[in-house]
Amino acid sequence: MVRSVGNDATTSFLYKYPLAIVWGLLVSACLMFLVIATPPLQVADEPNHFQRAIQISQGQLIGHRFSASDSGGVIPEDSVVFAYRYDDLKGRYERKVDWNRIFGSTPLSWKSPKREAGFPNTVIYSPIFYFPSVVGIEVGKRLHEDILKSFYLARMSSAVFCVLSGMFALAIVRQGRLIIAAFLSMPMSLSLFASCSQDGPLIAACAVCTALMTRLNDDFCKNRWFWPTLALLMGCILASKPPYILIAFLPLIIAPWAAWRSAAGACVFAAFAALAWSVMGVHSTKIPFRSADGVDAARQLRFVLSHPFKTITVLLHTFRVSAYSLMGQFVGVLGWLDARLPDWFYQFEVMFFILVGIFSCLYLTRKIGRDELLRKALIFCVSIGTVSAVSLSLYLIWTPVGDSYIGGLQGRYYIPAAIFSVLIFPFASTPHFLSVTKAKAVEIGLLTVGLWVGFGAIVQTILARYW
Question: What residues form the membrane-spanning segments (predicted)?
Fold first, then answer.
């Protein structure tokens, strides 16, 4: 009898959330490959992300400014050696590795003397989305493993967190389920999930946050945990990425009038979290980047404020010149952005997203009122504003004053904005022309094909690039 009840519960769960289950299983296989086959520290900025995770694992949530040109933390000397052990691979496509180099090297110990280490571009980040990697590091320490094995455990822990978060998002999301699954299945997203970067957990958290926002107009939001969870999640996202500040206003736009107090409270909390970390964690550790190249954030800000139309021209010019490369990086350029996927895959991904978009149109509501249209217009403005804010943040901190082109932009920076943009579309709960069962089957079929083709392209790219 117990076995029968258990089987019925499992069958019910699989029937209710098939896309989440299939996505979780297929992505887990892909992430396992990426964790192992991507050589250590060969994801963009992963050495500095790993050092930041080590710092946090020691209880040092806020870093140190060592000088006017360097900031970071005090961590074991061997971990610094490890962070730069594979620097010769970066940008050198002809350089390959073998297992003997990785596992045959002299073991590096957590018990080595501590020293100052500079990682100024990651020490300013909130510790929240480093905690999955920190868990892996701590497990490695408790098992008395060396730094290399702890590093792989950190990658594995981050991957597990991202899979579970993605499955939860796809299970509770009410609209745009397949579109969100497609964004979470891109090689760029998967590469970040399987790294020690905070960006992977951040993207997964944005998917959960978006999924919660799709439930603001039904009874799901009446659960006691709903609003505190949404507020905390938005606060964590904004503390880690202040340029996403406009997403704090989404609950105010989407929630019904009866819930305006809760929505306002979530908005205020999220904004306060971003401000608090900026004061406590960023101000004390932030150093100027590329000052020798003419980069000056204060002067650039004055330029932006005094030449607003010029700034708009700079944005448009940058997107026009870099559209192709940014879209490629958005979908996926692996390694240190030096391992492009096969050309055929980018063409496939365009077709895949077109099919996903066409199928998702079956869920679009046929009628939309004036108030709802206004909400969607405001959400669209938030999405465009977020993309602009991300771009302008690089204009301020990474681009010479008055330059006509924004430096340092990478396509992966726009993945969270793309996920939140799903809220623009007025989706219905059931599709037109198809039964719910057939619609679920089509979703699973499309996602399975997309993921397996992507997995094949990832395997081909990683093996050709590193092995």
Answer: 20-41, 151-172, 225-254, 260-280, 312-332, 344-365, 377-398, 413-434, 446-466
Contact (CB, 8 A) for 216 and 254: yes
Q: In 3-state terms, what secondary structure has residue 311?
A: helix
Decide if 204 contacts 132 (C-beta within 8 A): no
User: Contact, 398 vs 289, CB < 8 A?
Assistant: yes
Burial class (CB in 10 A: 0-12, 13-18, 19+), 367: exposed
> Residue 121 has what DSSP assignment?
T
pLDDT tens per residue across span 238-252: 999 999 999 999 999
- Residue 293's SS3 state is helix
H helix or E strand, kind and range, residue 186? none
Whether residue 123 contacts residue 285, with contact meaning beta carbons closer than 8 Å, is answered with: yes
Bridge partners for 427 per DSSP: 364
The CA-based angle 65-67-68, given to 5 degrees, is 100
Structure token digits, residue 317:
């010019």
* Global pTM value: 0.94
* Of 93, 177, 54, 160, nearest in space to 427 by CA: 177
At 87, the amino acid letter reads D
Distance (Å, whole) CA 7 – CA 172: 22
CB atoms within 10 A of CB 260: 12
Residue written as tokens 């679920």?
Answer: 440
The tens digit of pLDDT for each residue in 179-237 reads 999 999 999 999 999 999 999 999 999 999 999 999 998 888 888 999 999 999 999 99
Contact in structure between 16 and 167 (CB atoms under 8 Å) = no
Find the length of the chain: 467
Among residues 74, 30, 47, 62, the alpha carbon closest in space to that of 453 is found at 30
Q: What pairing do the DSSP bridges indicate for beta strands 70-76 and 64-67?
A: antiparallel
Domain ranges of the chain: 18-466
How confident is the model over 98-154, as pLDDT tens digits? 988 898 888 899 999 999 999 999 999 999 999 999 999 999 999 999 999 999 999
As a whole number of angstroms, the distance between CA 186 and CA 162 comes to 13
Beta bridge partners of 67: 70
CB of 382 closer than 8 Å to CB of 213: no
